[in-house]
Specification:
With 619 residues, the protein is α+β, with helices and mostly antiparallel strands. It folds into three domains: 10-152, Galactose-binding domain-like (Jelly Rolls, Sandwich); 167-239 and 282-358 and 482-504 and 525-617, FAD/NAD(P)-binding domain (3-Layer(bba) Sandwich); 378-471, no CATH class. The chain contains 15 helices and 31 strands. Helix 2 (181-192) runs parallel beside helix 13 (570-590). The termini are far apart.
Length: 619
């Protein structure tokens, strides 16, 4: 596995031969990314973030940087890359690109071989000592990928790599990892209640699934009994859109969410939905609220890679910047895993579960007879627009192949363009996402070029396809209470009831018809929803049972697979974050752990939940 390196972008490394020279360039360190984007989703598996040429069939602009050649000579060029459709033994290699040195393209075309990440050998070039320019030149727009480039005068590939130095980011009362709705709400809630907070997020924008990168609309109701003030912060952080400010000001007596709904009733075209324009998700609104808190420090583009422990307590989380490769240690008294994947919990050795429990284990009527690894999948959403003039879309022989019997015209791929249910959404995320891309591009190629609707589609243009997958399920960290179906169905009371979930028991499965059409390669899902009444889940689902200073908010809380169906929507997970911040403030105030809040300070937590942490409610 490839270790990451510190700046500067080019590093002359020690070679196996004393007279040899190596220059290693991390692709994500390029000074100008052009049209390439950074993808870190699989860095725990393949060792690194990488650059992705996500151009929807149109080659993207070159990524460029300046390097330093340590000595004149002949340099072999190797590129760490792969042919991303090779796992399916597909025809053709869509992710083709070239490397340019000083403006001249090498003859080798990269991204054309190998299902696994590897060093693909390229040309040997004569280079003079001093500055040189390096560029990645995309040839297809179909998700070519480059992790790193090595220029070496050594006859073999045996070379050393530097290990990043570890910087100290400071000590905090609470370190929140994951900047989706749950993490943003947890960080702001704790900060407003006096905690010193670090919010660590592995993407350049906040919001998680509700960001412009994944584009999943907010679902679930807020402002519910028994704590109707829970949700104030969700409202504050969630997308509002400048289009409704004027109307909202005309009804100042209503809670903000009701004002927004009043606007939507007048202007239904403004309603936020999945797979919409990027402005619908208002990344900047989340950023404004987070950055306004003086007690909160934000660390974007930072992926948690290690957890340090003493006994059963986390003492620090180490994060690696996905652009620079620098590592930072975040020391803390409390840690909140809001990653969705339970990343911090997994690194720290927290108890967790994946897949479906057996009926004999949980007694749930919706559970299968035998336990298995089936998960709800990952959505790769997309949408198109009607343009003023016709446009072309390339043939994609390497994508999924469609015919008239298995397609219908559509302009948007919603939540049900979902794949990876029979895979591991952590370990197999690159393959899962890539299969989603094969489905979208295969559909679009067929509709534009060979279908009976091609005249209708002549002016239709594919505008956006997600390259950050929208996940529903992976690890579930186990707490003192594991919420199950019977709790919700029977409305079982708990003394520490807090966040009220209003979504049904919504479980996704591979679409049976899609499974027949694409056996073993499904990319569409169905949702089976059992209606429920609003139910307040217990606070004890929000902290780890065996790591005493670890809390969690989001889809990785302590629930069964079945119960996950009702708690995983983002307004609900945002309220979990609000409660987490409140509990963290009590841990800090009373020098206790999250379990201690339940044991000794539950009434105080209830008082905070009754008051809320909306800006208007603070002293």
């Amino acid at each position: 596995m490839k270790s990451k390196l510190l700046l500067p972008v080019t590093l002359a490394l020690a070679a196996s031969a004393a007279s040899a020279h190596n220059v290693l360039v991390e692709a994500e360190n390029f000074q100008q990314l052009g049209g390439w984007v950074i993808d870190q989703q699989a860095m725990d598996q393949m060792g690194s973030p990488f650059l992705l040429a996500h151009g929807l069939g149109v080659p993207v602009a070159d990524a460029t940087t300046t390097i330093t050649i340590p000595a004149s000579g002949k340099y072999r060029v190797l590129v760490r890359t792969r042919d991303w459709v090779a796992p399916w033994k597909a025809t053709g290699a869509p992710g083709k690109f070239q490397v340019k040195i000083n403006g001249r393209a090498l003859r080798t075309v990269f991204g054309t071989e190998g299902a696994a990440w590897h060093w693909q050998a390229g040309d040997t070039v004569e280079l003079s000592a001093g500055k040189a320019t390096l560029a990645l030149h995309d040839l297809t727009g179909f998700d070519g990928r480059c992790d790193a480039i090595l220029l070496t005068t050594a006859p073999t590939d045996d070379f050393c790599r530097n290990t990043p130095e570890l910087e100290d980011a400071g000590e905090f009362d609470l370190v929140v990892v994951g900047g989706g709705m749950a993490g943003c709400c947890a960080a702001v809630s704790a900060a407003r209640l006096g905690c010193k907070v670090a919010l660590v997020h592995d993407r350049p924008v906040l919001g998680g699934n509700n960001s412009s990168e994944s584009r999943v609309g907010l679902s679930g109701l807020i402002h519910q009994q028994p704590y109707p003030r829970l949700g104030d912060l969700v409202d504050e952080i969630g997308p509002i859109g400048h289009w409704n400010l004027y109307e909202a000001k005309r009804a100042p007596d209503l809670p903000r969410s009701k004002r927004i709904m009043a606007v939507i009733e007048k202007h239904p075209e403004k309603k936020q939905h999945n797979a919409g324009p990027s402005t619908n998700y208002e990344d900047e609104q989340k950023l404004r609220v987070v950055q306004a808190e003086p007690n909160l420090r934000l660390f974007l583009s930072t992926h948690a890679v290690r957890a340090e422990k003493t006994g059963n307590r986390i003492t620090a989380v180490v994060g690696r910047n996905i652009v620079t490769g620098r590592e930072q240690r975040f020391r803390g008294q409390l840690f909140a895993d809001c990653t969705g994947d339970g990343c911090v919990g997994s690194l720290a050795g927290a108890d967790f579960r994946v897949g479906r429990e057996a009926q004999s284990e949980t007694g749930e009527s919706l559970a299968p007879e035998k336990a298995d690894r089936l998960m709800m999948g990952v959505s790769v959403q997309w949408y198109a627009e009607e343009a003023e003039k016709p446009s072309r879309f390339p043939d994609c022989p390497w994508a999924l192949q469609f015919n008239e019997k298995i397609v219908k015209p559509m302009m948007r791929g919603d939540w049900d363009w979902e794949t990876g249910m029979n895979l591991d959404s952590v370990a197999d995320i690159e393959q899962i996402r890539d299969h989603g891309l094969r489905a979208v591009f295969g559909y679009w190629s067929f509709m534009k070029n060979r279908s009976t609707w091609k005249d209708t589609f002549a002016n239709r243009r594919l505008v956006w396809v997600a390259y950050i997958g929208g996940k529903r399920e992976s690890r579930r960290l186990l707490g003192d209470v594991i919420l199950c179906q019977q709790d919700v169905d029977e409305q079982r009371p708990y003394p520490d009831a807090c966040v009220t979930t209003t979504w049904g028991l919504d479980l996704h499965y591979p679409h049976p018809e899609n499974s027949k059409q694409f056996p073993g390669q499904e990319f569409r899902s169905i949702a089976k929803i059992k209606k429920t009444k609003p139910y307040p889940i217990p606070y004890r689902c929000l902290y780890s049972r065996n790591i005493e200073n670890l809390m969690m908010a989001g889809r990785d809380i302590s629930v069964t697979h079945v119960a996950l169906g009702t708690i995983r929507v983002q307004r609900t997970t945002g309220m979990m974050g609000e409660v987490l911040g409140m509990a963290a403030s009590l841990c800090t105030k009373h020098n206790t752990i999250p379990r201690g809040v339940y044991q000794s300070h539950l009434d105080e937590l209830k008082s905070l939940m009754q008051r809320g942490v909306g800006k208007q409610d603070l002293p």
